[in-house]
Amino acid sequence: MNFLIFTVISVTVDAYSNPLSCKGICTNAHDPSLIRRDDGTYFRFSTGGKIAVHTAPSVQGPWIYNGAALPNDSSINKAGSRDLWAPDVAKFGSTYYLYYSVGTFSSQDSAIGVATSTTLDVNSWTDLGSTGAESVAGSKFNAIDSSLQSTNGRLYMNFGSFWSDLFQVEMTAPPTMIAEEVASATQIAFVPTPPQAQEAAFGYQYGDYYYLFFSLGSCCRYDVNKPAARGEYKIQFDKSGKSCLQGGGTTVLESHDWVYGPGGQGIIRDPEFGLLLYYHYVDTRIGYSDGQKQFGVNKLDFSSGWPCV
After folding, report:
1. Catalytic residue, candidates 88, 134, 145, 199
2. Is 309 exposed, middle or buried (0-12, 13-18, 19+ CB in 10 A)?
3. CA distance 213 to 145
4. Which residues contact 158 (CB under 8 A, 6 or more apart)?
5. Would you say 116 and 98 are in contact if contact means Cβ atoms under 8 Å apart?
6. pLDDT digit string (tens) for 142-171?
7. Is 199 known to be catalytic?
8. Is 238 in the active site?
9. What would the pLDDT profile of 190-248 be if each residue is shown by its tens digit?
10. Could you say which of 31, 127, 134, 254 is catalytic?
């Protein structure tokens, strides 16, 4: 699989567009995962509140809170099973798959779980527990921050946060379990200098290439999305030709104006705006607390061969 790698970083620069306007509940948006149902309804899943679910008729809102995706917690027997992180939602066939992280901050004792639904609605999710992607102290990775990617009829999970950064493992079909031993997961991006602050991998195919977006920086002061790499999954390079396994990554979005620390990103195609990059960020005019994380959306342009906002 050909991969281009992009990162999100927190620095003060210019030439970035501000987020599109947002109506309704545009906070409570940490680590957003966005999906559009066939009837046109947008669903936004986010960290906290047992995976908070918001819906809207448009990507710009008005967003309303619907409830928790997993109100009864996760069945995974690890610390953090009542405080679920970093959701990722994908559709395979007629079923939606909600991946989530179980763990505690600054610990490798983590796991990636999965729940299923045929509607996306709250009170419709069935928790299936662990996908088999788990880590413990001393593992070569931290099994959190997952995203599902499909290519050439095969399914992959990208995951990782700090601890040697980003990895990839093949999934079964349907994608409820890993298809190989998690210890054999392939490293796909790495920052060799401590603290190896890289996470939130999101793969996206555009044209003949696969782009790997990730967040670079310590939570929650990243700059969002560096795509880095044209090549097979195991061979990724950024726009300058630097390997993503040696800290490569071409910045797509970073802190600017009143937008601080964009991160936790994903990509979706909207019928009105086309391709969009979505993420969370801090609006410095409002506040920095976790509950004040804003939902950000920018138009994404690949016309130069590399994504930009």
Report:
1. 199
2. buried
3. 12
4. 146, 147, 149, 166, 167, 168, 188, 201, 202, 203, 212
5. yes
6. 999 999 999 888 999 999 988 888 999 999
7. yes
8. no
9. 888 887 788 889 999 998 888 999 998 765 544 444 444 444 444 467 788 888 888 88
10. 31
